[in-house]
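Re: weekly structure request thread

Next one in the queue (307 aa):
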Amino acid sequence: MDILKSYIVGGHRFSVSMPENSVLWNKMDNYSPFLEEGGENIPDSCDSQESVFCLNIDLISGGEEIVSKSKHLAEFDDDTAYISLMSSSENERVFVISLNRELRDRGGVLVAGSDLKTCRLYMGKCNNERHGIFVVNNALMLLYALSTAVKDTILIHSSVAVADGLGYAFLGKSGTGKSTHTRLWLNNIAGTWLLNDDNPVVRVDEKGDAMVYGSPWSGKTPCYRNAGVPLRAIVRLSQAPYNKISRLTGVSAYAALAPSASSMKWEKSMADGLHETISKIVMSVGIFHLECLPDADAARICHNAIK
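Done, posted below.
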């Protein structure tokens, strides 16, 4: 029998359905802090009006027929995942998701309708727990980013420290030291704690104020906090033989944030939603560029400049 569990992340509700006896449920502890009250082990029935999306997971079918009849549009292959994007004969979005290109023939097939409300993930070819839970996590993260793109919400690839009840998001290209800089805050700025180390949620409220939330997706660091704080500043990092911080404004501030935001930027409605959200964040939050060494002084200089 299939069961459904509902979760709330950044104020948005989504649901996951799959067989009750699936071992994958036991691998989804990162979602437990976000479980909706009363939303566990309930019969499979998704209210798409209340959820931004519902994902039904099929552990038997591999989705081969859907892929064979779909038109290839693009593919993305980086150090985090391999994703192939297609369009089905029924104009649904089809994604093949795998750990890397070499495993693409054993990836999961995610099918999402135009409204992104009810989605299906075919897992028949993901025949081990490690690859299977990787596909589930990336499918849910992808659906969350897409379904909230027009709801003043973005997922940003960053590490977030909280100091004095305010959130500070550190972002930059892979390898620039986001997690390292956050650890420097934890070790040198009294009372600092980690909210999320990879994919926090930023949401702008009706007043135009930005909040940053923990999420079930925190990269290699197991930090899954169901908490939200006002977002004080966003800092783009770059390595340098010195420590120097400068404030960014206008186009420079927008350009510092935009590359780290997740969405289908080639679809007009989502691109427009992403643009509006980033613009609101830039207007309400301090955006900075920190050129730095991986040392304690970098954390102190940064904190003193942006607190």
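The mean pLDDT is 91. Residues 129-147 form the longest helix (19 residues).
Next request, please.
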